[in-house]
Amino acid sequence: MHLDVLDLRNFYYRTNLGRVAQSAIRAQVVDIWPEAKGQTVAGFGFAVPLMRPFTQDARRVIALMPGQQGVMPWPAGQDNVSVLCEETAWPLPDGFVDKLILLHGLETSENPAAVLDEASRVLGPGGRALFVVPNRSGLWARRDGTPFGFGRPYSNGQLESQLRHHGFEPEAHRAALFAPPTARRFWLRTAGMWENAGRRISAYYAGGVLIVEATKRVYRPTGLSVKDGLTRPLRILEGLPARGPEPA
Questions:
Q1: Lowest mean pLDDT among 93-97, 173-177, 187-191, 223-227
Q2: Phi/psi at 238 (nearest 5 deg)?
Q3: Model confidence at 186, in pLDDT bands (50, 70, 90)?
Q4: Which of 55, 217, 238, 240 is most buried, judging by how many CB atoms fall within 10 Å of its CB?
Q5: Would you list the DSSP string of the chain?
Q6: How far from 245 is each of 30, 237, 240, 242, CA to CA, in Å?
Q7: Threshold 0.90, pTM exceeds
Q8: Residue 83, exposed/middle/buried by CB under 10 A (0-12, 13-18, 19+)?
Q9: Phi then psi for 103, rounded to 5 degrees?
Q10: What's the pLDDT score for residue 94?
Q11: Among candidate residues 83, 77, 113, the one with its CA nearest the CA of residue 5
């Protein structure tokens, strides 16, 4: 079940813990994708906290928000790019997107297979996608006080298997939110230190969220090829005697 858009907005933009979470995950996104000049960037679920850096140089930015969640105008103070849509029918043509971000869109969906099929459909050849999901073994998935405590958390293996089943090839793995999900001042002040330590030791099991970058798999045609013509003539009749004149 999708969370309400107002609850998500309040967490990320009106609480100190939400701002820390936004900063930690967005830092990883920018590290993976430092720019998107001239490209189309789309997000599904509630991906807008991670998409702000791409509004400057991307060709277009689109925020897809499922109907079960609700929609809000974004970005603030600029022309709205948010779109309310069905989670199984995104209003984008095939191969339209160069970069795609899913946050609070996969683990809360009642039909994650259809969401992944739509993600694969709208992603163009050579396109890349980032899937941000709660870590099954992390602390954030065990607390109901944040959006990461709802829906189905994943392990790395579970997420990779599901992505491959729907035409994606995982390329890189990250984790974020290594500090505990508490609003106490000490943990908020030291959150940056915990993020840096977690990156250095690559402790995927300790991060609150898993971040997997995947590319759209392009299948090669299978079966036997059919040629219009032969490269050289068959010579199976060579050596037979020439046909003589017919009798009168």
A1: 223-227
A2: -65, 140
A3: very high
A4: 55
A5: -PPPHHHHHHHHHHSHHHHHHHHHHHHHHHHH----TT-EEEEEES-HHHHGGGGTT-SEEEEEEETTT-----STTS---EEEEBTTB-SS-TT-EEEEEEESSSTT-S-HHHHHHHHHHHEEEEEEEEEEEEBTTSSGGG-TTSGGGSS--B-HHHHHHHHHHTTEEEEEEEEE--S-S---HHHHHTHHHHHHHHHHHT-GGG-SEEEEEEEE--PPP-S----SS-SS---TTTTSPPP-PPP-
A6: 85, 19, 16, 10
A7: no
A8: middle
A9: -135, 125
A10: 96
A11: 83
> For residue 19, what pLDDT is reported?
96
Sort strands 209-216 and 168-176 into parallel, antiparallel or unpaired. Answer: antiparallel
Q: Give me 58's structure tokens.
A: 């991307």
Give the whole-number percent of the chain exceeding pLDDT 90. 75
The pLDDT of residue 226 is 47
Please name the residue that has the structure tokens 């940056």. 192
Cα–Cα dist 113/116, whole Å: 5
